[in-house]
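Listing S7. Sequence submitted for prediction.
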Amino acid sequence: MTFLTGFWELCIETVSSCNRTCPTCMRNSYPDREAVAQRFGKQNRMPEELFRKIIDDAVNMGFSGSVNMQHFNEPFQDPRIAKLAAYAKDKGVFSSVYMHSNGDLITKRKAASVDGILDKITIALYDETGGQPMDPVKAANRRFELESWFSQTRLQWTTAIHLVTHFSPYANLKEGIAENRGKPCTREVQLRMILDWRGEMLLCCEDIAGVWNLGNVADHTVAELWNSDKHQTILETLSEAGGREAYSFCRSCPRTGTWD
């Protein structure tokens, strides 16, 4: 069974940690703390050989979309990030190699190490409390500083609060769930293939703990994971109106999951 021919974006989390503890982020709002415990304390890194395998697998399956060097983590906590990004960039087949970052750890030296390797960095200008927009004056100053350090990599900016998730502490989740429960989910689960630092495939941006058990890229190719009967059945079910009812995790999701 192959419901979709492919995904648009490959997200690779090369390190487990983040320097921030934003309350609105899934890292910190997820209620099962034991399930996400490995994301805190000791820094866990994806083995370089596993990262290279992922990139090689993607090339071999004909993937030509974008590679995002980040997901639930802060990528600049990985001292290898420039080297790993260069491995992907040097393949010359991906539409872009980029990342999202909170920008805290970007120094002039680190900027130089990735300038021209990364096509784009989307930087979230949040204040120190996390998840809330930074003071406009402070944000303007930081933006000016960061832009002065890059001549080839394009910078984009996020100034809004974090997206609402299953467990957002300051949102009306019941309203969002009620509004979207009957809708199909054809964006989040079908747009991206997400691999965490362990190599585990995650279903979507809500699946921080890997509760769907979709397999590990250390044991399968990228194509095998994406096209597995289990994964394709989930995608097919969620593509239908009312499909969320089949899965308790999706029944309680407040996100639209569609393009409208």
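Caption to Listing S7: primary sequence and predicted structure tokens for the chain studied. The beta strands are 9-12, 66-68, 96-101, 120-124, 154-158, 192-195, 201-202. The mean pLDDT is 93.
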